[in-house]
Write a structure and sequence with these properties.
The chain is mainly beta. It has no helices and eleven strands. The strands form two sheets. Strands 2, 4, 5, 6, 9, 10 and 11 form a seven-stranded mixed β-sheet that branches. A hairpin with a 6-residue loop joins strand 5 and strand 6. The radius of gyration is 13 Å and the shape is globular. The N and C termini lie far apart (39 Å).
Length: 122
C-alpha cells in the first residue's frame, strides 16, 4: 500500500499562492493516478484535481481551473499542487490520494495522505 505525506499548507492572503506536495512511498507510485481533494469546515470532501500515472492527462474541478496546476515527478515519488490566485473559498484541509484508473472518475481512491490546512484570508 502506498503511504502519502502531505506538506506545504499555510496561511495566505487572497490572491496569493501556495504549493502543496504529496510524497509517496512504495514502488507503485509511478503507475498510479494521483488526486487532490479538499474539505472545508462543515462541508463534504470534494474533488479538486487528478493527474494520470505519466502526467499525460489531468482533470480539474471547475472551481479551480485556471488557478491550480497539478504536476508530478515520478523520479521523486511526489505530486504537486500549485495554487495561484487563492480565494477565501479555497480554505480547506487538502488531501492527496491515489488509485488506479481514469483521472475523470473522481471516485475509487484508496490510499490517502494526512491532509494539510490551507487558509486564505480575505
Amino acid at each position: 500500500q502506498v503511504q502519502l505525506v502531505v506538506s506545504g499548507g499555510g496561511l495566505v492572503q487572497a490572491g496569493g499562492s501556495l504549493r502543496l506536495s504529496c510524497a509517496a512511498s512504495g514502488r507503485t507510485f509511478s503507475s498510479q493516478t494521483m488526486g487532490w481533494f479538499r474539505q472545508a469546515p462543515g462541508k463534504e470532501r470534494e474533488f479538486v484535481v487528478a493527474i494520470s500515472w505519466n502526467g499525460g492527462s489531468t482533470y480539474y474541478a471547475d472551481s479551480v481551473k485556471g488557478r491550480f496546476t497539478i504536476s508530478r515527478d515520478n523520479a521523486k515519488n511526489t505530486v504537486y499542487l500549485q495554487m495561484n490566485n487563492l480565494k477565501p473559498e479555497d480554505t480547506a484541509v487538502y488531501y492527496c490520494a491515489t488509485k488506479r484508473g481514469n483521472v475523470a472518475n473522481t471516485e475509487g481512491y484508496g490510499s490517502w495522505g494526512q491532509g494539510t490546512q490551507v487558509t486564505v484570508a480575505s
